[in-house]
Amino acid sequence: MNTFGTLFRVTDFGESHGPAIGGVIDGIPAGIAIDLDAVQTELDRRKPGQSLLTTQRKEADKIVVLSGIYEGRTLGTPIGFMIANNDQHSSDYENLRHVFRPGHADFTYAAKYGHRDHRGGGRASARETAVRVAAGAFARQVLAAHGITISARAAAIGGVDLLTAPQGTAEKLIEEAKFAGDTLGGIVACSVKGVPAGLGEPIFGKLQAMLASAMMSINAAHGFDYGDGFDMAARRGSEVIDNFIPDGNGGITTAANHSGGIQGGISNGAEITFRVAFKPIATMMRPVDTVDDCGQPATLQVRGRHDVCVVPRAVPVVEAMAAVTVLDALMLRQARRL
Questions:
Q1: Structure pTM?
Q2: I want to staple 197 with a disulfide (CB 3.0 to 4.6 A). Which of 97, 155, 183, 269 is the partner?
Q3: R_g over Cα of the chain
Q4: How far is C-alpha 75 from the chain's CA centre?
């Protein structure tokens, strides 16, 4: 399951400390003008080492396109691309060769495959999300031609609502957790505007299910809701109904948007809103009790360079996965109308 999507498909490959990571995008229409500088800009938003509050791994994350684009336009053939890994400190992970980090994929990968790459988490590392961001950057350019835009933001960190908190609160919280050798979780909120009514399938391919699948595939994602989400469970139907009204242009809209732009699994033309909850990073710069691969008690003292909170760098990843998902849904709708 290294491929995501039905008609717009993204396959990614690579490990954190391998020579490179990369991907193949299949299904993108021919003749689409692609701005590779814009793709690089998205990658720059996610790349590590941009502040003292993120991992100090220094990666340029420069994309190299191998196929599928000629003279600035898509050929309709698979777009292959690669992003080199240049700043691996594999020796930092040598003490993890036979020890399982609690909360990570070390034990589960060993249980599934019987063999794992312990360096930087291998395939389970968030390093892989750079591939998603690149693929999403291609998708965003196709969506822009259809008037669809996507934006996400850090909504909460460590239980603090960043909308109402003073400026600089996020940085302060992360600094405090870093000093304590601890980590923080948080929430990313995302908005998709310009989506026409009619995207999504009525039963097993509901648009919110597609988005949930995309978001829950991101490292450290632990929750997803859309519209009023879980808050709806504590309210009455009369409080959250989205009454239909004329839009003033001969069409139909809703008086409110409690449903987050999706009804019956299909977009209704309103703004699509959703949130993704991320757990605190399991790697903490303090001793942690665990076991080794023989089941014997061990104490883990992590070394190396690690994020304290994924939320700031997860924002472009959430946007990218939203773009990939919405473009796939758009292409599925268009295919039904041939």
A1: 0.91
A2: 269
A3: 21
A4: 27
